[in-house]
Specification:
Aspartate Aminotransferase, domain 1; Aspartate Aminotransferase, domain 2; seven-stranded mixed sheet; four-stranded antiparallel sheet; 17 strands; 38% helix; Aminotrans_V_dom; NifS; PyrdxlP-dep_Trfase_small; PyrdxlP-dep_Trfase; pyridoxal phosphate
Length: 449
């Protein structure tokens, strides 16, 4: 089967169809918000994803658990099935093997464009977490002796755990600067106050899966390099990838990791970018193998092929919402439209819509990161004074609305414990969610609390 058949559903004429418009926020009011996507384009968007309205096990539901894993593109499902059926291996002297190698090479180039990465290496691994561990380990082992490893308390345990472990192994202190509890983020100014010339390795979280706040990666990186220009900087982009643009060329970093199941692909692999200088350091590899190879053993060609489906989707959506002529510009246009639409949804969730009060207007509700926060990316986490988070999640599930409990454990305790919260409810949206689904959520919350 020609791969074009697999990917054909995503191949559409480019050009603006008037499918999108700029939003007028419903913030501070309870009126109707103007949506970024027209009803026709929204129907097309939702039609490209599997299980938009129904759980395959439990029936109809509203999916507000996107931070735990976004919906999957139908093209990804089809592509995965096709490549799972191919018996041939890479690096063989036959046409099928050559096609597999072409697919991998094309995917690496397209993902590099999606990341806007100039130079460096794109590769896949076990998961986004595993790739963060590998890059942070190699940075710590390869950096000049002495110094410190710098991070922040807002980070996911994937980067915090890796930094702590490899700082200890390499005989360095691990310095965690406190994040702003009220805002749920860390700023470039905080890094600037903490960085010293002794920083050898630094980690940055792009977006928090608990607070939902995005960090200024370029600003933080600049603050680090102003004082420690040779530091190796690794970024956790796992939560950010589906909510906004990635622009590695502007970050001046050395590593960036993403979990594709959080950006419309499937479980079972992660994808990362490593700079040339991080790649040049020693790392696990087969003796006598190709120089600069990050991958251990034969990787799944289907993983690379499904990354192409994700890039093609952003490319298609960018063509629907803009008149951009090149793929990178369309990817940026898609990311901007996604950000606008999700902001409309979270504003409605916080401040209300269609005469339904928002969470910020309900008595006894605490919004993690504050209701007024421009850094928010598609996520609202809240707690109620008189009802435990698991009980609210259960009540919403009974009404067909899927959300998630964040507990003050090793995953989220760094965020919730300083706020005096044992748990909180995370409601995470994506651009295929609708204002009608937010209305249903608010109506249910009015009954529950």
């Amino acid at each position: 089967m020609d791969e074009r058949v697999i990917r054909g559903a995503l191949e559409r004429p480019r050009g603006h169809r008037g499918g999108a418009r700029r939003r007028r926020t419903g913030r501070r009011g309870t009126g109707e918000a103007e949506l970024t996507f027209s009803p026709e384009l929204m129907a097309e968007i939702r039609g490209r994803f599997a299980h938009v309205e129904e759980c395959p096990f439990e029936g109809r539901r509203i999916f507000f658990e996107n931070a735990g894993g976004a919906l999957t593109l139908k093209s990804v499902v089809e592509t995965s099935g096709f490549y799972a059926s191919v018996p041939d291996n890479q690096g063989r002297a036959n046409g099928a093997s050559a096609k597999l190698m072409e697919t991998i090479a094309a995917a690496k180039a397209e993902v590099a464009e999606f990341f806007n990465a100039q130079g460096g290496t794109v590769f896949v691994g076990e998961s986004g977490t595993e790739l963060l561990f590998r890059m942070i380990r190699d940075a710590c082992l390869g950096a000049p002796e002495g110094g410190v490893v710098l991070g922040s308390t807002v980070e996911h345990p994937a980067s915090r755990s890796a930094a702590a472990r490899w700082a200890e192994v390499t005989g360095r202190d691990y310095v965690q600067m406190p994040h702003d509890d009220a805002l749920g983020l860390v700023t470039p100014e905080a890094y600037a106050a903490a960085v010293t010339p002794e920083v050898r390795v630094a980690t940055i979280l792009h977006t928090s899966p608990v607070t939902g706040m995005g960090m200024d990666v370029a600003g933080i990186s600049a603050a680090i390099r102003a004082v420690a220009p040779e530091a190796l900087i690794v970024v956790d982009g796992i939560q950010h990838a589906c909510h906004g643009s990635i622009d590695i060329a502007s970050y001046r970093i050395d590593g960036y990791a993403v979990s594709p199941y959080k950006v419309f692909s499937r479980h079972g692999y992660g994808v990362a970018w490593a700079s040339d200088r991080l790649t040049a350091l020693g790392h696990d590899a087969l003796a006598g193998g190709p120089a600069g190879n990050w991958e251990l053993g034969t990787r799944d060609t289907g993983a690379y092929a499904t990354l192409r489906d994700v890039v093609a989707y952003f490319d298609w959506l960018g063509g629907e919402v803009s008149e951009a002529c090149d793929r990178r510009a369309r990817i940026e246009a898609a990311a901007a439209a996604i950000h606008d639409h999700e902001r409309t949804l979270t504003d409605a969730m916080l401040w209300g819509t269609d005469n339904l009060p928002g969470l910020a207007r309900m008595d006894g509700i605490t919004i993690v990161g504050g209701a007024e926060n421009a850094a928010r990316e598609g996520l609202v986490t809240f707690a109620a004074e008189d009802r435990a988070a698991p009980a609210i999640v259960e009540a919403l599930e009974a009404r067909g609305i899927r959300v998630h409990t964040r507990k003050a454990d090793h995953y989220s305790g760094n965020i919730l414990s300083p706020l005096g919260l044992e748990g909180a409810v995370r409601v995470s949206v994506c651009h295929y969610n609708t204002l009608g689904e937010v209305r249903d959520f608010l109506a249910a919350m009015r009954e529950i609390v």
